[in-house]
Write a structure and sequence with these properties.
With 274 residues, the chain is mainly alpha-helical. It contains six helices and five strands; from the N terminus they run ααααβββββαα.
Length: 274
C-alpha cells in the first residue's frame, strides 16, 4: 500500500475517532451514562460527575429525563380533555334528541317548533320548514404533533407536524392542543323550540344542557392554556434532543461511508493504480 493511501486511511481514522466521540457525548446528553456504549470516549467519568455534585455543582439531568418529567401531567390533562370531549358529544346528542321529541313527526303540526311560512307543505319532523333549522356539530379536540416529538425522527424537518383528533391513545404527546367549538362531525339537525306551555319542559332541559356544555368548554379552555404552556417548554428540550440525534446520525453515516471508501481504496483494483 502506498504512502499516499496510508495517509488517506489515517485521515479517515482520525475523522471516525472524532465522530465516535461526538456520538458518545450526544448519547450522554440525552440519556446520561445509561445511554453511553463506550464511556472511555467521554472526557469525564461517573465519579467526576458524582464529585461535582458533592461539591455543590448543579448538573442538569439527561434531556430524555427532563422531557419525560412533563409526561404525567400532560397525559392526565389530555385524558381529562378526552373525557370532556365525550361529555360534550353526549350532551349535544341529548339536545338533538330532546328537540326531535319536542317537534314530533306529525304532518302540518310542528309541535314546539315554529313554521317559517316558506314551505307550502310541512310533512312533520325536523326540516327546513321550521325556524332555526341548522346542523348541530360536535366540538373538535385536536393535538398538533411535531416530528421532533419522536426521538426516532432524524430528518431535516423537526417542526413539521400532523394534526390529529385527541384520544386516549395520543394523550400527553404533541406540542399544541386545539379546541374548535362546533368544528367537528355533524350530530344532527335541530330547530328553535318554544319556551311556553307544554314546550317549557323541553326548552328548559335543552337550555340546561347548553349551560353544561359552556361549563365544560370553560374548563377545557383553561386546561388547554395550561397544558400548551408546558408542551411549549417541553418542545424546547425536544428540539435540543433532535439536534443531537441528527448530528449523531450524520456522524454515524459518515463513519459507515468512510469504511466503505476505505475498503474500495484498499482493493487490488484501486491499488494497482496507486
Amino acid at each position: 500500500m502506498s504512502e499516499k493511501t496510508d495517509n488517506i486511511l489515517k485521515g479517515f481514522k482520525k475523522t471516525k475517532d472524532q465522530n465516535a466521540v461526538t456520538v458518545e457525548q450526544g448519547k450522554f446528553l440525552i440519556d446520561g451514562f445509561d445511554g453511553v456504549d463506550n464511556p472511555d470516549l467521554l472526557p469525564f467519568t461517573k465519579k467526576d460527575i458524582e464529585d461535582a455534585k458533592k461539591q455543590g455543582n448543579e448538573i442538569d439531568p439527561p434531556l430524555q429525563e427532563r422531557i419525560d418529567d412533563y409526561t404525567p401531567f400532560t397525559r392526565n390533562i389530555d385524558n381529562r380533555l378526552v373525557e370532556i370531549s365525550s361529555s360534550i358529544t353526549t350532551l349535544k346528542t341529548e339536545i338533538k334528541n330532546l328537540i326531535v321529541q319536542a317537534v314530533g313527526n306529525t304532518d302540518e303540526d310542528p309541535g314546539c317548533g315554529t313554521l317559517t311560512g316558506l314551505c307550502t307543505v310541512y310533512g312533520g319532523g325536523i326540516s327546513t320548514c321550521l325556524a332555526g333549522y341548522e346542523q348541530l356539530t360536535d366540538d373538535l379536540f385536536q393535538v398538533r404533533v411535531q416530528n421532533m416529538s419522536s426521538r426516532s425522527y432524524t430528518d431535516l424537518s423537526p417542526e413539521d407536524h400532523s394534526t390529529n383528533t385527541l384520544t386516549s391513545s395520543n394523550a400527553g404527546i404533541g406540542s399544541v392542543n386545539i379546541l374548535t367549538k362546533d368544528g367537528g362531525a355533524g350530530i344532527g339537525f335541530t330547530v328553535t323550540i318554544s319556551s311556553s306551555g307544554g314546550c317549557a319542559t323541553y326548552y328548559n332541559q335543552v337550555t340546561a344542557k347548553f349551560g353544561q356544555i359552556d361549563t365544560l368548554r370553560a374548563e377545557a379552555d383553561n386546561l388547554i392554556s395550561n397544558v400548551n404552556t408546558a408542551k411549549r417548554e417541553r418542545g424546547k428540550l425536544e428540539i435540543q434532543r433532535w439536534s443531537i440525534l441528527y448530528n449523531n446520525k450524520q456522524a454515524s453515516d459518515e463513519n459507515t461511508h468512510l469504511d466503505s471508501t476505505a475498503s474500495s481504496i484498499q482493493s487490488d483494483t484501486i491499488q494497482s493504480f496507486a
